[in-house]
Predict the 3D structure of the following.
Amino acid sequence: MRPRLLPSALLMLLLVVAGCTADDGLPADAGDGTDQPIGTASDLPEIEAPDGVLVYSGADPDDGTPTGDLVVALPDGTELYRAEGRDTPAFAVASGFPDRAWVVAETEDGLVDVGLLDATAFGVRSLGLPPAAWQIPTPGTARSNGRFAALLAPGDAVALVDLGGGSALLLDVVASPEVASLSPDGSALLVAGPQGGALVDTADPTRVLPLDDARPIEWLDNGTQLLVEGPPGVGTLTLADGSISSTGVADVLGAVASSTDVVLIDVDGQLAVTDLSGATPTVIADTVGAPLVVDPAGVAVVMPTAAGLSWIPLDGGDPVVVGPPDMQPIAWPGPAGPSVAWFAVPGGRGTPVVGVDLSTGQSVNVTAGEEQSWAMLDPTSLDLSADWRTGLVVFRNGQQADLVYMGLDRPPSVVASGPEVTGSLSPDATLVVSSRGDDGTTVIGVGGPAGSMLVQVGVGIGPTWVPVGS
């Protein structure tokens, strides 16, 4: 869950969370790139927390003013660690890697400082990166793949982060980077901008392969190849030796990263599927909509059509309308991500959130309910389980906000309500940690999807659930 702090924050999934001054930045412990606990050493023993731990920013119990403390607690409310001494808050954001959470804080000039928290060895480390408009990657997207993640400040900077080792490297490989995508196997990072692209070896970032005039399209064969376009046409680049082989396709719209030759093309304004040889294409839709969300497993795509947002099988089967035609993705998977995507109407009031199983076409349509029929979705609030099948989202209507628990496999329910309610899911998606107003303060509590608070953890804001262990 992302706290609502920066009015100018970049939305569209890879979202920024904020909250401190430049003079009160994150600690700058030196990184050694090993698997040892990162950050400040602690005499406390490592803990066992099969349900994960909670990380939140502390607040004054009397008036709810943020204290600048960063708190780690067990789901039963036991406080494990409290980092004190800050004047303004930093916030934790789940990284998708066990024990690690991003720690983000706003500088005086509105940029973002990024660090890492080891949630069980109790240490916060600065990554040594300059403050920038960093976008924090959501686990399962193209910029987050297991141990490695890519931080992107569009048009300004890109950094490769080793979450396990607790280190980061600012990359100077492409001018004005706009795209960063990890290969499905995590072995390479693609960086691209208006003036070209490059491939970076994640194990040895000094190994860089410039793409020159080749425009990257999509990974192929689980990352051993990259589909590119440039003089004299569309080709496949083999990462092992840098060679490019020509293909028989043109007007390429996308591809299935897990396959060797499933390619999506535009045939006279129709969406079609072919292979790298350019075999007779199979038309699967009468129009070409955008954006096109491709199932990482290669079963189907989802795109807007005249009939509505449609799930379209790649084998030519019948499409299924799953939502209104003006919906846009607010969470879509990377090449190694889960086969689930979530959609919403930007700025729409009374419009639903739609979740789609990209491999089966199963979908769920979630609204704020009859009493909040004109509520507006807050896309920055979306928090998803590891498999993306379950999530939390906030609907806002004036000063009223409802935190809604939703999923492809369970009915929606309101978990908490209040002006600044936020929340985060446990690793197994069966429990919710939420913050909600209580007599002028904001209380962190743990409860079930029905909305009852089972445990009051403490006073604070911006709670995040962090998985522990492998």
Q: What stands out?
A: The radius of gyration is 22 Å. The CA atoms of residues 274 and 281 lie 5 Å apart. Residues 1-45 have pLDDT under 50 and may be disordered.
